[in-house]
Amino acid sequence: MTTLPALEYPRGMKPSFIKIICFGDGYLRMTFPQPWFDTYGADLTTTCKLKMSSGVTTTVGITKTSGKTYIEQNWRDFVYTHTIEIGDTLVFTYDEGRDFKVIRFKANGCMPDIDITGPEEPWLGGRRYYPDGTESEDSDVEPPEM
């Protein structure tokens, strides 16, 4: 099966899927939904680019096995760089060729400010939740004076 040409997408829409980051695989790799991959992703190469709404782009590696396809190489760097946490929802929109636009929503249903303003924010703040169930110690840290 091959990827549908852009002209065949209904009303200008592009193929998208969501992933909710959970304990376990969410930090180690991202599994493509098999129905999405069967319809749109058969022509994906071994690398693709993930572009956050802030404009920051990360090149990641795709691993295809019998029955499943993952983003593994550089996925952990992507998760760490963008402070993706347990409970975050990522919306992936396939943007032709090898590119995905990624929009993130926190567990509260809102986009984080850093995803809107871009990487120039001097302080991210907040608490991080790690796959082993531990939390970061930086929740009481105050942002630096501007």
UniProtKB/TrEMBL annotation:
Q: Where is this region: Disordered?
A: 125-146
Superkingdom assignment: Eukaryota
* Keywords, in A-Z order: DNA-binding, Nucleus, Transcription, Transcription regulation
Describe the location of the TF-B3 domain by residue ranges.
Answer: 50-108
Compositional bias (Acidic residues) spans?
134-146
Matching SUPFAM superfamilies = DNA-binding pseudobarrel domain (SSF101936)
Q: What is its main location?
A: nucleus
Question: What GO terms are given for molecular function?
Answer: DNA binding
What CDD domains has UniProt attached to this entry? B3_DNA (cd10017)
Per its record, how is this protein called by name?
B3 domain-containing protein isoform X3
The organism is: Salvia divinorum (Maria pastora)
